[in-house]
Amino acid sequence: MIMKRLLQTLVLACIPGIITSDPEPLQDFCIAAAPGDMAANPHSMFINGSPCISPTLAGSAHFMTSVLAKPGNTSANPFGFNVTLTNIRNLPGVNTQGLTMARVDIALHGQVPPHSHPRASEVTLLLKGTLLVGFVDTSNKLFTQQLRPGDSFVFPKGLTHFLYNIDTVSPAVAVSGLNSQNPGAQIVALATFASKPSILDEVLKKAFMIGGQDVERIRKNLGG
Ligand SMILES: *[C@@H]1O[C@H](CO)[C@@H](O)[C@H](O)[C@H]1NC(C)=O
Ligand SMILES: *[C@@H]1O[C@H](CO)[C@@H](O)[C@H](O)[C@H]1NC(C)=O
C-alpha cells in the first residue's frame, strides 16, 4: 500500500505540467496590471520576458551576432571596464533560452568593482591578460584566484564578485556566460552611495561606520 502510494507520487511528480514551480523573474519586478490598464495604454505593458515571432519567420541570422567582436571602450568608465552583452535585441534567438554572453574589457589597473547578478550564475573565461577574481559567500568568506589566459572561474548566482586586472602591461579581455537572458547587475558602491534618490546619510554612516563628510565625499566621487 505504502509502496503503491510512493509510486503514484513519483509518477505524478515526473509528469511535466502537473507539478511545476513558478517561472523565474526576468526583471527586477513585474507589478501586476489592473484590469483596463492594457486597454488604456497597451504600450506601457511589460510581460515577464519577450513575445516571440512566428517560428515560420525565423532565420539563421536571428541566432547570430557580432556584437562581442569589438572591444568596449574602457576610458569612459571611472572603474576602467566595459561590458558588452548579448541580449534579445542584438541576438533575438536567445529569447527564452536562459543565456547571456558577455565580453569584458578591463583597462590596465582597471576593475569590474564588487557587484552581483541577481538572476544568474556566471562562468568567466580569461582570453588575455592576468586577472585577480573573487567572490564573497553569504558567510563573508572570500574565494579568490589569479587567472591566466585559458583559465575559467565560476561566480555563484547572486553573490558579490569582482575582476581586477593585475597585469602591468596589458589590458584584459574575458568572456562570460550567464544563465539568464536578463542577469541584471548591481554594483555595490553605486547601489549604496549613488542611488537616486540617495539613501539617508544616517543609514550609510552607521552601515559603513563612517562620518557625514565621508558619506558626502564617497557620494561625490561616485557621481551620486
Ligand atoms: C562601452 O564601449 C562602447 C563601445 O566602444 C561604448 O559605446 C560605450 O559607451 C562604452 N560604455 C561605457 C559605460 O563606457
Ligand atoms: C573612448 O572614450 C573616450 C572618453 O569618452 C573618448 O575620448 C575616446 O575617443 C573613445 N575611444 C574610442 C576608440 O571610441
UniProtKB/TrEMBL annotation:
Residues 66-216 form the Cupin type-1 domain. Its main location: secreted. Mn(2+) binds at H115, H117, E122, H161. Disulfide bonds join C30-C52. Oxalate binds at H117, E122. InterPro entries: Cupin_1 (IPR006045), Germin (IPR001929), Germin_Mn-BS (IPR019780), RmlC-like_jellyroll (IPR014710), RmlC_Cupin_sf (IPR011051). Belongs to the germin family. This is Germin-like protein. The lineage of its organism: Eukaryota, Viridiplantae, Streptophyta, Embryophyta, Tracheophyta.
